Amino acid sequence: MGRNIFQKIVESHRVSGNPTPGSEVGIRIDQTLIQDATGTMALLQFEALGMKRVKTGKAVAYVDHNTLQGGFESMDDHLFVESACRKFGLYFSRAGNGICHQVHLENFSAPGGALLGADSHTTTSGGVGMLAIGAGGLDVAVAMAGEPFYFTMPRVLNIKLEGRLPAWSTAKDVVLEILRRLTVSGGRGKVLEFSGPGVQTLSATGRATITNMSIETGALTAVFPSDQATLAYFRSMGRESDWRELRADPDAGYEEAMVVDLGSVEPMIAKPHSPDNVAPVRELAGEKVDQVAIGSCTNSSLEDMLKVAAILNGKVIPPGMSLVIAPGSRRVLRQLADGGQLGSLIAAGARILECACGPCIGMGQAPRSGGASLRTFNRNFRGRSGTADAKVYLTSPETAAASALQGRITDPRELGEPLRIRLPEATVTGDSMILSPAAEDEQVAIARGPNIKPLPRFEPLPDVLEAEVLLVAGDNVTTDEIMPGGAKILPLRSNIPAISRYAFSRIDPDFAARAEAAGQGFVLGGKNYGQGSSREHAALAPRYLGVRAVIAQSFSRIHKANLINFGILPLEFAEEADLLRFAVGDRLRLDQLHRSLQPGGNLMMENLSRNFAVPLKIDLSPRARKILLAGGLLALIGAGCKDK
Ligand code: MIC
Ligand code: SF4
To answer: Which residue's CA is the closest to the ligand 2 atom numbered 1?
Structure first.
């Protein structure tokens, strides 16, 4: 039987393991990506590994998350990242140059290559046929050191695209439809691989919108073939020589299949507060919105911006509406300026934001209290916008622009005649905002501001853990709830003692104080615990506060790997319903952990307060068990970090 695209790339990069679903494999990584919110830690970890230079083909760091610079912390961090890049051999994309995924797609993506990024939406480059995976910063630091990346081989879900999108339906509507069907956990343990005649009707950046947001299903990643549309994109970026064709064999096999008829995809919208709460836009048409935000790594390509400009051209937004637009990269912004479309956006009343993540991660533009904000982004988790009671909706740029003009949720089909935009064959090239590293023999001093605190070190796993339940959480807890972002907290990413004060603060503002008073403790959760971002701070900060185990009904992939990397035991209830038998304050005991973590070992969790015990599931690879016993990955590797 022939091979699918995922199998082909894994096969050409595999260094260990058996490539069958459920087995752990290790792959060689060609490129890495970090950004300023995850990258300071990743670079500190890289340094702690004792490395002198990165060993991956291309390693890039982007400044795109912490660009508000409301205090000294962020700029200090940026100078740290810039100097560390020069020293260790990474390319450095300067603040304002754009969102990591958009800029990476434009400048570095390579069909058939393997990219590991310290950001969950690294999957964006899957749109051009790359195996692009999001991971915690430590996994990326280890990959930069030339080590393989390990993951459990997923099942490949073939999404066959038939037909052609009708006027006003977009790639964003396709991925919203996929989320409607799969939900935020339906992609767990899977890779989404796209095929079928509909593929060729989608542009490369449209495909990247789909692979970007596919991560919201919980999938490992998503990948498209690399074909003539991909070639056209690489040509327009002046990178034709980086293109190569990549397709599944005609007789390729897949573990699962789904068909999406593009012809029947309507404009869709994700309602508050989850990306899978999807309905057709027409069902919500007429609902008032106060704010429209266009941009983010999902929808900020030149194609998206040209469509928005065409809709807004010659019109003005109504009073009471705040419209903000952040092009994904400086290249896109310049193109809009050169082509005159920026003028249309400005004249329509749009507030043009810096090319950065901005409102997507709560860095400014928080909606009004109780307000409704319609965004072209990928996540609408409660409170992520910065306003706890705001309602955030996710749509395509077309729906967003139409709604901005009406001040109400508007089905773009009401605009009548289909849009006609012309994409230039070549875009501006020569990215002076990406700095090359220094020569290997050049002396570079690393700039270290006072916000950058040493990495904490954690002790090996004891044989017995006895502590109280600090929190009982529900299903689909997001890393935004475990370790929030936003203008106040995000600048503390290089300072674990300071950021740990905010762990779980959205769920329970007293969590940090209670955990500290208890000395150590357990967190209990429902299904898909830790969905969303790759931020390892959602493991690092709880561990710093003394959380030693999370016992949940199931975990999201990246968060589970981060828990392991920082020595927090991720355990599952053998009987899901047992979760209901525990409450905050119960004293629990896990005995003979060292023996339980041996192959075939089992584990009971005693509730000393209520006098019963329940069986737990240990779903961990031999490698993960070793890391946990050592007290985390850095401890296992013996990296030299300072004591906590
Ligand atoms: C996000 O969209 O939540 C982020 C901010 O980009 C994160 C990374 C981070 O927390 O720094 C992600 O998606 O991994
Ligand atoms: Fe930035 Fe938002 Fe994309 Fe995360 S999802 S990388 S915060 S634009």
So the answer is: 357
Instruction: Take atom 3 of ligand 2 and give the residue whose Cα is closest.
Output: 297
Q: Is 31 in the pocket of ligand 2 (CB under 6 A)?
A: no
**Number of other residues whose CB lies within 10 A of the CB of residue 454:** 13
Identify whether 273 is preceded by a cis peptide bond (ω within 30 of 0). Answer: yes
Rounded CA separation 582/571 (Å): 15
Ligand 1: which residue has its CA nearest to atom 8?
119
H or E stretch including 549?
A: strand 547-552
| Ligand 2 contact via 479 beta carbon (within 6 Å) | no
Q: How far is the CA of 353 from the centre of ligand 2 (A)?
A: 14
Residue 439: DSSP 8-state: P
Write the DSSP string, 144-178. HTT--EEEEPPEEEEEEEES-PPTT--HHHHHHHH
Over residues 123-151, the mean pLDDT reads 98
**What average pLDDT score do residues 129-151 get?**
98
63 C-alpha to ligand 1 centroid (Å): 13
**CA gyration radius, the chain:** 24
Give 498's contacts (C-beta < 8 A, 6+ positions apart). Answer: 453, 492
Contact status, residue 6 vs residue 156, Cβ threshold 8 Å? yes
Give the per-residue SS3 of 298-357: CCCCHHHHHHHHHHHCCCCCCCCCEEEECCCEHHHHHHHHHHCHHHHHHHCCCEECCCCC
- Ligand 2 centroid to 134 CA: how many Å? 12
Q: Answer yes or no: are the C-beta atoms of 328 and 355 closer than 8 Å.
A: yes
pLDDT over 90, % of the chain: 96
User: Among 100, 13, 18, which residue's Cα sits nearest to residue 56?
Assistant: 13
Residue 431: is its pLDDT beyond 80?
no
How many Å apart are CA 225 and CA 4, to the nearest integer? 10
Burial track 152-181 (b if 16+ CB lie within 10 A, e otherwise) = bbbbbbbbbbebebeebbbbbbbbbbbbbe
Per the CB < 8 A criterion, the answer to whether 36 and 159 are in contact is no
User: Which tens digits make up the pLDDT trace of 582-632?
Assistant: 999 999 999 999 999 998 899 999 999 999 999 999 999 999 999 999 999
Query: Which of 296, 381, 394, 533 maximizes ligand 2 atoms within 8 Å of its Cβ, making it the mutation to test the pocket?
Result: 296
Q: Is 37 in the pocket of ligand 1 (CB under 6 A)?
A: yes
Q: What is the pTM of this model?
A: 0.98
pLDDT at 138: 98
User: CA angle 507-508-509, nearest 5°?
Assistant: 120
**Locate tokens 């396709």: which residue?**
174
Q: How far is the CA of 342 from the centre of ligand 2 (A)?
A: 23
Rounded Cα gap, residues 204 and 224, in angstroms: 9
Cα angle, residue 391 at apex, residues 478 and 180 outer, rounded to 5°: 60
Residue pLDDT, tens place only, 344-391: 999 999 999 999 999 999 999 999 999 999 999 999 999 999 999 999
Structure tokens at 477: 């807890």
Question: What residues pair up with 409 in beta bridges, in sequence order?
Answer: none
pLDDT confidence band for 639 (50 / 70 / 90): low
What residue ranges in 54-120 does DSSP mark as E strands? Answer: 58-62, 91-93, 114-117
Q: Which amino acid is at 101?
A: H
Instruction: Say yes or no: CB of residue 122 within 6 Å of ligand 1.
Output: no
Tell how far the Cα of 296 is from the centroid of ligand 1, in angstroms: 11
- The residue ranges of DSSP E strands in 369-498, in sequence order, are 372-375, 391-394, 434-435, 465-472
pLDDT at 25: 98
